[in-house]
Amino acid sequence: MSIRVLVADDQPIVRTGLTMLLDAQPDIEVVGAAADGREAVRLALRLRPDVGLFDIRMPLMDGIEATRRLAGPDVTDPLPIVVITTFDLDEYVHGALKAGARGFLLKDAGPALLTQAIHAAADGDALIAPSVTVRLLAAFAHAQTPPPRQPVEPLTAREEEVLVPVAQGRTNNEIAGELHITPSTVKAHLASLMRKLGARNRVEVAMWAHETGRI
């Protein structure tokens, strides 16, 4: 079964390039392409893709608002959305993640990382570009005024150990190798972290780690 993807970017050359990269993968199919956030929301509701790949800076409706409408806290059946952006220009990635985005990539991400992000989102996971995770999340965490929420139960020592590499953008397999445990054990600890923190995905877990000074 192919993963059905909706691409949204206001630059035709970027939109075409992303579509070609994804369509070249044997198990990914681009089912729609939008030039702005409003069109992205309309197409998503009509086509029901498995994953959305959205730029942040778009006319009529930006990627943050489009993400909020399709994946926000009040959405019953949220669409997994990966935000693709340019760090040096975008100041809104934290807002996109708060709005429900599953992860983010830089626009210069290669086909391998792009494919990994699509698969992760489709599997209910998230991929954060490791090269910008700490710099980006830490920068925006310090700008937040509300105090970070407290876990409903104290974190265990092992959950604290898993939390740090999650916030650094490591995959489950990488974390398993570092901590000498199985990937399924990492997944179980991550599920417990999400439950205790009231987080919907590992992106929100990573944001909480930065907001509480664990990174």
UniProtKB/TrEMBL annotation:
Pfam families: GerE (PF00196), Response_reg (PF00072). Keywords: DNA-binding, Phosphoprotein, Transcription, Transcription regulation. Gene3D superfamilies: 3.40.50.2300. Residues 148-213 form the HTH luxR-type domain. GO terms for molecular function: DNA binding. Transmembrane segments: none annotated. PROSITE patterns: HTH_LUXR_1, HTH_LUXR_2, RESPONSE_REGULATORY. The modification 4-aspartylphosphate is found at D55. GO terms for biological process: phosphorelay signal transduction system; regulation of DNA-templated transcription. CDD domains: LuxR_C_like (cd06170), REC_NarL-like (cd17535). Residues 4-122 form the Response regulatory domain. SMART domains: HTH_LUXR, REC. SUPFAM superfamilies: C-terminal effector domain of the bipartite response regulators, CheY-like. PANTHER family: TRANSCRIPTIONAL REGULATORY PROTEIN NARL-RELATED, TWO-COMPONENT RESPONSE REGULATOR. This is Response regulator transcription factor.
